[in-house]
């Protein structure tokens, strides 16, 4: 049985047995906050539990490394929508130690793409179209500096409300310990 079929079979029972009832909430975050964090599997349950958050408390946006690559991309748009449409009053950008984005080498990723069938012509077409693949695929060397960069991108965005605190933290993916990088309540 494929993973999709297993998921659909389980989902059918989940709905029939009304197991969803414990998760019913609204689209508005009860604690009026939005979190941008990494997509790392270790954070899926650990991050909310380490912050005493439950279903319905926050909006969570995920990207590789909790990085905002572009000021007008989907990540930034999600944060802005959370602020202006979904009543979030604070932004938390939370990276983690031992991140897979640390020291990512773009050439290695491009080689893996080629082994899966992406042609050199496609890669060259992307470059010709103005995509700097080396920059776009590059990771970071220091998670703390990466978090500072993302916090500054949000804080200095022309459409961001300057009264919204933007915090930066780094979590230990084993213990859940949070280290404060930037207290967004200061320097607003």
UniProtKB/TrEMBL annotation:
Statement: the UniProt record of this protein carries the keyword Zinc: yes
Cofactor(s) needed by this chain: Zn(2+)
InterPro entries (UniProt xref): Carbonic_anhydrase, Carbonic_anhydrase_sf
Catalyzed reaction equations: hydrogencarbonate + H(+) = CO2 + H2O
EC number: 4.2.1.1
Highest taxon listed in the record's lineage: Bacteria
Keywords: Metal-binding, Zinc
PANTHER family for this protein: CARBON DISULFIDE HYDROLASE (PTHR43175:SF3), CARBONIC ANHYDRASE (PTHR43175)
Family statement drawn from the similarity comment of this UniProt entry: Belongs to the beta-class carbonic anhydrase family.
Name this protein carries in UniProt: carbonic anhydrase
Organism expressing this protein natively: Metaplanococcus flavidus
